[in-house]
Amino acid sequence: KMKYEKDKIEIRIDAHEYSPEDLDVKVEGNSIILTAKQEIHEAGGTRTRIFEQKFSLPSGVQGDLVKSSLTRDGVLVITAPRGNTEAVENKMDRVLDPSSWENERRMEADFNDRRRVSAFDDIRRDSM
Hints:
By secondary structure, the chain is an alpha+beta fold.
């Protein structure tokens, strides 16, 4: 279960079948990766059970401050503070502002026109 709050996100997972040594929580890029590895001893030998789940971090979440803990009830709680999400959203609005699309299209068209004419094309035209 993932819960979004104004100042943090919180992920709660039932892990009562696992000991703390069986659990690994790490951050890679903008994702939290939970890996649970458990060895089960049976009459015929040992079987290993591996569970992995990946959670994408929303914008503004500070991945380097992710913390995890295991409650007495066996619930794994992963928390990550949220930074200034308004600044990120405002920046996105400026980048994706529709009024700038026409200028970008014009610049892209100019670039493509210049790219079509190359030195190789000039040589080929002169040799004909």
